[in-house]
Amino acid sequence: MARITLEDLERLGEEPADGDGSDGEDDQEGEARLFAHWEAVASTHRVSLPRDMAGPIAQMARHRQAREPVPYVSLSQHGKCEAAAYEERQYPAGKWACVTMGEPMYEQSISMSFMKLMRYICKENSVGCHLGMTVPVLNEIHLTKEGTELEREVLTAYYLPGEFQQNPPVPRDPEIHITERAPLQVITRVFYGMTTEETILREISLFWELLGSTDMVLRETYIVASYENPSVPQRRNEIWFIRRAE
């Protein structure tokens, strides 16, 4: 299976220069290689990548440098080394596009949800244009009563860019819902790499060891925040512990 380098991704975001038409062929070849890369990644998650995802994938690559951060206020930071560092944040209320999936594997659920959101972001919306990417994308998870496994249902949420917060474009996909989420106070910790049920459970356990015993956060619901798309192997993620409402 073909692979694509970071340099290839950068070139896909550049405007084609005037020439003899070979640039168009290069773009098509680059898009084919990019699709092949995503197809290989999807297969590791046991997900089939539809051919109609080629367009959204290419658009996301072209706009990869323009990512709007979800607004928040940092309340406190703890720990001097990254391995033991965590931060408390306050996120304001805002409108999010949300998809809920309940596939057998966590990776399947987030992959299928992200594909739906990519289509919405790129064109399948009531304004018919690219909306712009925001980070992080949130994956809300729930633990079983025993606390040893994840529940199957995962809610994946994309924050609407600032210009669309007041009047969000309507999704064409009926499984995408625009939701006004309440203000959220979280305690966050960074980790890198692929997100699987195993790695998430490990990160939750490590975070509890750092925090110690406390009743100030939820024990059954957590959020995995993803800052890069699923095709990036060593992507930046955060685990969020949610503060209980006072």
TrEMBL record:
Basic and acidic residues bias: start-end ranges: 1-14
Residue stretches of biased makeup (Acidic residues): 15-29
One Pfam family matching this protein: SOUL
Region (Disordered), start-end ranges: 1-32
Stored InterPro entries: Reg_factor_effector_dom_sf, SOUL_heme-bd
One function term, GO molecular function aspect: heme binding
Family named by the database record: Belongs to the HEBP family.
Protein name (record): Heme-binding protein 1
Organism per entry: Zosterops borbonicus
